[in-house]
Amino acid sequence: MFEPIREWVSPQEYLELDARADEKSEYFDGEVFAMAGGTLEHNLIVGNLIRELGNQLEERPCRVYPSDQRVKIPSTGLYTYPDVTVVCGDPHADPEDRRTLLNPVVIIEVLSETTEAYDRGDKFAHYQTLESLREYVLVASDRARIERFVRQEEGSDWVYGECGDADGVLALASIGCVLSLPRVYSKVEFPERAPGRRRGPERGWRGL
């Protein structure tokens, strides 16, 4: 996780600071964490995801929100800004702040070198406590690969799946959508990778 930008603040102080700030920040356990801006590849992928899901959900009772939409995890107190958030049915706002969403069905994070470990680990652990969340999606920004975690009916187990075929598609069953890799990565030019750099999670890594 990023370094805090100041010492302990209350949730209300954070909300007031965030409302006035030029850049977004996360909040957890009394600390405010500045969020870095995305790369060209990251931002283009996010735009493609929002367009694809928005088009597929246009006639359905679901809403797609961009990275400016703040989400609160009530059970842990984390305030964060997912890259893409989908809500089906009525959106539930935090009674303490109407700009904060409480009931995402799907959350998508576009990975970067600096945030990947957090998105896979601690952040996913926070997200799993959201009762409304059905699917968590991780999208690589350095190659064409999409990973998905689906909550099982029992509520505590998540099943992992991925798609790394250039022409492949990944279904999001909870919202009846598909993510086509050619469309998600449309016009994305991947940066060159350093020789020997590992791709993806360490061998043996398992979702929570």
What does this structure look like?
- The structure is a single chain.
- This protein is α+β, with helices and mostly antiparallel strands and 208 residues long.
- The protein has helices spanning 11-20, 40-56, 116-120, 122-127, 181-184, and strands at residues 25-28, 31-34, 62-65, 70-73, 78-80, 84-88, 93-94, 97-101, 106-110, 135-139, 146-151, 158-163, 169-172, 177-180.
- The strands form 4 sheets. The protein has a 6-stranded mixed beta sheet, with helices on one face. A 4-stranded mixed beta sheet has the order 5-4-8-7, with no helix packed on it. A two-stranded antiparallel sheet has the order 1-2.
How would you sum up this structure in a few lines?
Helices cover 20% and strands 29% of the residues.
Poorly predicted runs are 197-208
User: In percent terms, what proportion of residues is strand?
Assistant: 25-35%
List how many beta strands DSSP finds: 14
Question: Topology as H/E string?
Answer: HEEHEEEEEEEHHEEEEEH
Terminal Cα span:
18 Å
Taking all residues together, what is the mean pLDDT? 89
* Total number of helices: 5
Oligomer: single chain
Helix/sheet category: alpha+beta
> Over the alpha carbons, how many angstroms does the gyration radius reach?
17 Å
Q: Give a quick account of the main beta sheet: strands, pairing sense, barrel closure.
A: 6 strands, mixed
Question: Roughly what percent helix?
Answer: 10-25%
Q: How is the largest sheet built, in terms of strand order?
A: 3-6-9-10-11-12
Shape: globular
